[in-house]
Amino acid sequence: MKKLLYSLGFLAFTACSPQPQAIDYGADYCDNCRMTIVDQKHAAELVTTKGRAYKFDAIECMVDYLQQREKADFALFLVNDFTQASELVDAKECQFLFSPNIPSPMGGFLSAFHSEEEAKRWQAEKDGKLYDWDELQAYLSQ
Predict the structure, then answer these.
(1) Whole-prediction pTM
(2) pLDDT tens string 126-138
(3) Who has the most CB within 10 Å: 32, 75, 89, 142?
(4) Residue 82, SS3?
(5) Domain extents for the chain?
(6) Residue 94, SS3?
């Protein structure tokens, strides 16, 4: 009986651990602006420490949503890599490019790149300014 209780407790604990959830493009709605998420290069996701996922149609929507809440409540900060459509990666490991030559769903012209080399290549080709995760949040909070 004890073994069963321990097993059930372990399952309950791991079931709530923070995990990314797949975005259903064309069906899921942005938790910030309520638009349908369709762009597979600019979507983003926050996952709480309890495992609840919030999905966004653009990185700027996620940052706006995040700035209105307690950051400690979130375990995962995920963005789509611009060069790998629909692949969610850790935002803290990305470079973010503001380029007026790369439109994004909310008109923020903001794209994420998991590879710094790719970010610099796109910056050279499309112009713009690069930020890391902390710099991006500071810039968007102004």
Answers:
(1) 0.85
(2) 999 999 999 999 9
(3) 32
(4) coil
(5) 11-140
(6) coil
pLDDT in tens, 96-123: 999 999 999 998 999 999 999 999 999 9
Q: What's the start-to-end Cα distance of the chain, in Å?
A: 57
- In angstroms, rounded to a whole number, what is the distance separating the alpha carbons of residues 130 and 121? 11
CA-to-CA separations, 10 to 2, 3, 13, 16, in angstroms, rounded:
12, 11, 5, 10
Q: Which two tokens stand for residue 6?
A: 């321990």
| 28-60: pLDDT as tens digits | 999 999 999 999 999 999 999 999 999 999 999
Q: For residue 4, what are the contacts with CB-CB under 8 A and spacing of at least 6?
A: none
- Amino acid letter at 34? R
Whether the Cβ atoms of residue 109 and residue 121 lie closer than 8 Å to each other:
no
